[in-house]
């Protein structure tokens, strides 16, 4: 075989090995040889050969009792190394800037601080939206779309004190459990003028590896933008946030 042919065959073998590794990662736990072969579009003997190579490299392992295959410690180290080098904020900012260029809408990124949600980035659309909010501005948990998403998609312990503070007698009562359930069901929160009169806001979560909302992306609109286009902007934002979640190693909760 020529040197070019050997190189081509080597590249093909690496590609198939990576496909088998990806199948191992996608299956729900340890899997039998037949299931891996079928998902990899390989014969059982071919799959066994590639699995043996992956085991030798530490990327896979075989349970001695069941004979099933699972990801190895090498794959775990590789995944953790990739995650440690990934800047989720930067990835999100780039993707959301593209969204703003595509739609013309203004987007606000939020994060959850020790005292509540906070604005961490503004990406201004056209025409620009003028509000009193800016980077560093705090947001309420129970009366902002951004806050609703963190309420729904962060552990209750992380938001308990914020909820208690915002449900004191001097504040309007809120059915917190119903609010949390609604946002979890819908996957987003939309409000109209609740925080700032005339401002419509729809917040969508960006999830981390544990399925918790690490950031929110909130699309803002005023009467300049027709309300009938809000659904279209929201659906596109949901797609973008899902792409960001996947690109940064996050997972959407069931």
TrEMBL record:
The keyword Chloroplast does not apply. Coiled coil: none annotated. The keyword Transcription applies. It comes from the Bacteria. Residues 11-73 form the HTH iclR-type domain. It comes from Brevundimonas bullata. This is DNA-binding IclR family transcriptional regulator. One of its GO terms (molecular function) is DNA binding. Residues 74-250 form the IclR-ED domain. Pfam families: HTH_IclR, IclR_C. PROSITE patterns: HTH_ICLR, ICLR_ED. GO terms for biological process: negative regulation of DNA-templated transcription. Keywords: DNA-binding, Transcription, Transcription regulation.
């Amino acid at each position: 075989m020529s040197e070019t042919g050997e190189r081509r065959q080597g590249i093909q073998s690496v590609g198939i090995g990576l496909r088998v590794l990806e199948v191992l990662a996608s299956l729900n736990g340890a899997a039998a040889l037949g299931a891996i072969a079928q998902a990899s579009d390989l014969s059982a003997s071919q799959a066994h050969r590639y699995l043996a190579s992956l085991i030798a490299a530490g990327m896979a392992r075989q349970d001695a009792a069941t004979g099933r295959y699972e990801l190895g410690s090498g794959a775990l180290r590789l995944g953790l190394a990739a995650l440690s080098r990934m800047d989720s904020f930067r990835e999100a900012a780039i993707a959301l800037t593209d969204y703003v260029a595509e739609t013309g809408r203004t987007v606000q990124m939020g994060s959850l601080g020790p005292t509540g949600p906070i604005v961490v980035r503004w990406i201004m659309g056209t025409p620009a939206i003028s509000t009193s909010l800016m980077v560093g501005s705090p947001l309420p948990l129970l009366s902002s779309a951004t806050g609703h998403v963190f309420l729904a998609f962060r552990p209750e312990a992380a938001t308990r004190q914020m909820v208690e503070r915002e449900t004191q007698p001097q504040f309007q009562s809120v059915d917190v459990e119903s609010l949390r359930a609604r946002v979890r069901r819908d996957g987003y929160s939309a409000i109209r003028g609740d925080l700032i009169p005339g401002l419509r806001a729809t917040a969508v979560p960006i999830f981390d590896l544990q399925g918790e909302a690490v950031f929110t992306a909130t699309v803002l609109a005023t009467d300049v933008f027709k309300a009938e286009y809000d659904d279209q902007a929201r659906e596109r934002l949901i797609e973008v946030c899902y792409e960001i979640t996947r690109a940064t190693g996050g997972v959407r909760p069931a």
